[in-house]
Specification:
Elements (H helix, E strand, L loop, with lengths): L2 E7 L4 H4 L13 H16 L6 E4 L3 H13 L7 E3 L16 H4 L40 H21 L4 E5 L1 H12 L3 H5 L9 E5 L5 E6 L10 E3 L7 H10 L4 E2 L17 E4 L7 H10 L3 E4 L9 H7 L2 E3 L6 H16 L2 H9 L17 E5 L3 H11 L4 E5 L5 H5 L4 E2 L2 H7 L2 E4 L13 H5 L5 E5 L8 H10 L2 E6 L23
Length: about 500
């Protein structure tokens, strides 16, 4: 009968994040550590794993990794055995020091300076270990001593469970798992000490009927269900998309957290990542994606000014954004904002709610025969031009002439930006944010526009200098601004501000 045992090393801890030695210090997992553990469980679930018994150490990082992994694996009704024998290596007086100091313990018999039994940090003075004979508790250990400590767990508990055909999961630490591997695979202590035990990655050991190890290594991603997608910045409106990804690509997972240089590694185990407009994807993040094995970036937006396309290409990572046909809704939205401003629909709605049916101040202008300036001549700019042209407006445009024939079919005329500003009753922005376009709508640009212009921005908030816009709205130089985007919107959007919290001021 073939037997399998799965090892998972505890996820990233608060000490790991600071590059400090933790040993028997009972430090907690970071949010990344929890996420990695959940991901490991999702991988196991996708591969069809379940467990009859779980073994962990007494350290909270081990226990919490087990909780997160088994919860994500939907395997939660089995007994959990906690044992001090599975604790991490005790690093004595080096605990809490920089890991570089512990790097000198390179031989199996090298031990750190031990803690004295009278030291408050010695485990014999910790109530957690009150049931253990004080002389059995270490104040510092060599790797060989860790192996000796772990052996009774293998001989008396874990091994017999495997021999009985039970499905076993062990969640512990790098050195205690190396020690267990020594007994599972029949290695020397020197060989076991060199084993790579990555954090929060399921390691599967297959044994034959004689308990001889026939195969070992990380859980095969192909066996775990093939392609997996990691979604960052999941909002309530993304629940349906996240569910469909998880259904179509088992083992996929998502985070409400945005993608940053600190969270990018949370994608571990996924071959594709799904990003939103505010997620960071510069060279540092792309390098992390490459190291994690990501081959595909899926964008839930048309453009992404935080994405380093050159870095993606160099890393061999393909980038896919939403289709061009989403440009039509963008164009329609630009027109809707302009109509709402022109006909004072919001003001009219507010009056109606107060049973005020006075018409003063609600009359706008006829768009027919007026001029709309389209800044940016890509597919979304073309879609907006078609919408405004349908209202009988003349179209001026400024930008590359790649779609010149399509614009010409609308009777549009390509002009310089100053000409467009001076002649347009409506200015609609459809350009990407770049160092060259940031704050392109500043005080001088606004001063060059026709007085009473309507300004529409459905591209990027950073295109507009907010202070200059506010001044122009108060002066009347701009009659109305229709903004689908706002500079610094990631601090404002997806939150409720109805209880009087201070809004971002610019």
């Amino acid at each position: 009968m073939e037997r399998k045992i799965v090892f998972i090393c505890s996820g990233e801890t608060e000490s790991d994040a600071k590059n400090l030695v933790d040993g028997w210090m009972d430090v907690d997992l970071t949010s990344r550590g929890v996420a990695d553990a959940e991901q490991a469980g999702a991988q196991l679930k996708a591969a069809g794993y379940g467990f009859d018994v779980v073994f962990t150490s007494l350290m909270k990082r081990s226990v919490k990794t087990a909780w997160a992994a088994t919860g994500a694996c939907d395997s939660v009704s089995m007994p959990v055995v906690n044992s001090w024998r599975l604790n991490d290596r005790h690093y004595g007086k080096l605990q809490g020091a920089d890991k570089a100091e512990a790097g000198n313990l390179s031989s199996v018999d090298a031990a750190p300076p031990p803690l004295d039994a009278t030291d408050a940090q010695h485990p014999c003075n910790d109530a957690t270990y009150s049931s253990v004979l004080p002389k059995s508790l270490p104040g510092g250990e060599s790797f060989r001593q860790v192996c000796e400590r772990v052996r009774p767990m293998w001989d008396d508990s874990i091994g017999p469970c495997l021999m009985a055909g039970r499905r076993v999961l062990v969640v512990a630490h790098k050195d205690s798992l190396r020690a267990l591997s020594m007994y599972v695979k029949g290695l020397t202590a020197e060989e076991a000490m060199q084993l790579d035990i990555p954090a929060a990655v399921p390691l599967v050991y297959e044994l034959d009927e004689n308990m001889d190890c026939t195969k070992s290594g990380p859980l095969d991603s192909a066996a775990a269900g093939g392609l997996k997608v990691c979604m960052f910045s999941k909002k309530p409106c993304d629940e349906e998309l996240a569910s469909s990804l998880e259904a179509e690509f088992p083992g996929s997972f998502s985070f409400a957290n945005p993608c940053t240089a600190e969270t990018a590694a949370w994608c571990k185990g996924a071959q594709a990542v799904c990003l939103y407009i505010h997620d960071e994807c510069g060279a540092e993040v792309v390098a992390t994606f490459k190291n994690m094995g990501v081959k595909l970036i899926l964008l839930r937006c048309r453009n992404h000014d935080k994405l380093d396309l050159a870095a993606c290409e160099a890393a061999g990572i393909k980038v896919v954004s939403v289709k061009d046909d989403v440009a039509d809704p963008i164009g329609e939205h630009a027109l809707s904002l302009a109509v709402c401003l022109n006909r004072r629909l919001q003001r009219a709605s507010n009056r109606t709610k107060d049973d005020n049916y006075m018409l003063g101040g609600l009359v706008g202008i006829d768009f027919n025969s007026k001029t709309c300036g389209i800044v940016g001549t890509g597919v979304s700019g073309l879609a907006a031009a078609r919408c405004f042209a349908a209202f009988g407006m003349s179209i001026l445009c400024c930008g590359p002439d790649k779609l010149a024939d399509e614009f010409a079919a609308l009777g549009a005329k390509f002009v310089s930006l100053p000409e467009l500003y001076a002649a347009s009753d409506v200015v609609s922005l459809h350009v990407r944010l770049s160092p060259e376009t940031r704050h392109m709508i500043d005080a001088p640009a606004i001063a060059a526009m026709k007085p009473g212009v309507i300004l529409i921005n459905v591209s990027r908030g950073g295109l507009i200098d907010t202070d200059a816009l506010i001044d122009a709205l108060f002066s009347g130089q701009i009659a109305g601004a229709g903004l689908d985007v706002y500079h610094g919107q990631d601090k404002l959007f997806w939150r409720g501000w109805s209880k009087g919290e201070n809004l971002d001021q610019g």
